[in-house]
Structure formats: C-alpha cells, structure tokens
Design goal:
By secondary structure, this protein is α/β, with parallel strands linked by helices. Helices cover 34% and strands 25% of the residues. It folds into 2 domains: 124 residues, D-Maltodextrin-Binding Protein, domain 2 (3-Layer(aba) Sandwich); 92 residues, Periplasmic binding protein-like II (D-Maltodextrin-Binding Protein, domain 2). It binds glutamine (GLN). The site of glutamine has 12 residues, from loops.
C-alpha cells in the first residue's frame, strides 16, 4: 500500500524566467505562472502542501537529482534520456521547440543561420534541438542560464537567434519583446512534473490524481485561459 501525499509538505524546484509557465510577477516579485497555479491547485485538491523554490531550470533539475527538492515543475519536457533519472507525471501540456530572431533581423530560415551562432538555455531541449539543426544547417550553438537573459541576448544583437520552447517564444513575441519566430517549429516532449526515479511515489501519485481532478472540474482550463488568453 503506497503512502499518500495527504498532509505532507513537499519542496518543488522551478524555473525563474519561463513565462507563461514560471516567472516572477512583475508587481509582487512572487513566482507565478501556469505551472505554479497548477501545482498549487493540485496540492489543494489532494490535501498536501508545496513549498515552491524558484531556482532556474538546470539548477532545479540538478537539485532534484541530488535530492535537495522533492519535485520539479518547470515546463520540463518528458524525454527518453531524462526518464533514466526521473519519474514523470501524466503529460500536462504539449510543446515544441522554435527558433526566434530579433524582429528586425534579415534571418528568415534555418539556411540563413549558416556561419552564425544561436543561443539556448543550459540543459534544455532547445539546446539539443539547436545543436542537431546546427549540424545540418552549419551554425553554432552556445548556452546560458535563464530565459530572460536568453531573449535579451538576441534582441541586443549578441546572438543571431534563440532556440526555446514554442509557447514561451510565442508568449514573448506576443508581449512585444522584440522577437519573431522563424522556420518550422520542431516537435518536442510534452511537459511533465518530475520526481527522482524511484523516490516520492506518494507525491507523483498525488500529482496525477490532483491533475485528473482539476481537469475534470475545469480549474486546469481556467488557469491556462488566464495566462494564455489574457496575458498581462
Ligand atoms: N521544455 C524545455 C526542457 O525541458 C525547457 C524547460 C525550461 O527552460 N524551463 O528542456
């Protein structure tokens, strides 16, 4: 009989700049976004507590691996490689990887990237996807920490393009952050909530059960609508 999550408190690592999934509210400075509202709603539905720790993506994944946090919610793509180290929840969001350039850039295709350098976030699927495309189209990849820094590195002209998650780039472009999407988006893993492999089975089961509940009662859809239909 597996132990239930009910009544327990879990520490959850997340990204710091991955709007609309995880980001600091511009007014309060508090971490907010789809992932954050979702896991709070899930915890409430299941009677457990979460302590959210905004860390950055790669730092959160490393903290999960070393047991410093119980779970990670960070628009984390479910990949075969990561499944060797982590157990994932039911997928909760479909994603993809896209390339974006400065809105005034002449780059209109992957071919136009020949001889140039693009940037992606440390440890991200955007980086691995960019590296594969770079081999094919003759451009280089570099990587840094943090989505905001990533996008700024392109609008400032430091890098020719950025590879990041499709919904994140679409959100940034729609908010007038000076980026435009170029080329066909590439398929990527769906997002899942992660725990360390073989650990925190109670938390994982609680997440899956709570996700079912908030999907059934409309709460999950209202969270998506709040961030995707009426962005601040
Ligand atoms: N979905 C991407 C990945 O898992 C990026 C996640 C993120 O930057 N927070 O690699």
């Amino acid at each position: 009989q597996p132990q239930a999550a009910e009544g327990k408190t879990f520490t959850i690592g997340t990204d710091t700049a991955f709007a609309p999934f995880d980001y600091a509210d511009p007014n309060s400075g508090e971490i907010t976004g789809i992932d954050i509202d979702m896991i709070r709603a899930v915890a409430e539905a299941e009677g457990f507590k979460v302590e959210i720790k905004p860390m950055g993506f790669q730092p959160a994944v490393t903290a999960l691996d070393s047991g410093q946090v119980d779970g990670v919610i960070a628009g984390m793509s479910i990949t075969p490689e990561r499944k060797k180290t982590f157990d994932f929840s039911t997928p909760y969001y479909k994603s993809g990887i896209a390339m974006a350039v400065d809105q005034d850039s002449d780059i209109a295709s992957f071919e136009d990237m020949k001889g140039k350098t693009a940037i992606a976030k440390n440890g991200s699927e955007g980086l691995t996807t960019g590296e594969e495309l770079g081999k094919k189209y003759g451009f280089k990849m570099s990587s840094i920490e943090g989505s905001q820094a990533l996008h700024d590195a392109v609008t400032s002209g430091q890098y020719a393009a950025v590879f990041d998650d499709l919904p994140v780039l679409q959100y940034a472009a729609a908010q007038g952050k000076g980026l435009k999407l170029v080329g066909d988006p590439k398929p990527a893993g769906d997002y899942g909530f992660a725990v360390k492999k073989g650990k925190n089975a109670d938390l994982l089961a609680g997440f899956n059960s709570g996700l079912e509940k908030i999907k059934a009662n409309g709460k999950y859809q209202s969270i998506l609508d709040q961030y995707l239909k009426n962005p601040e």
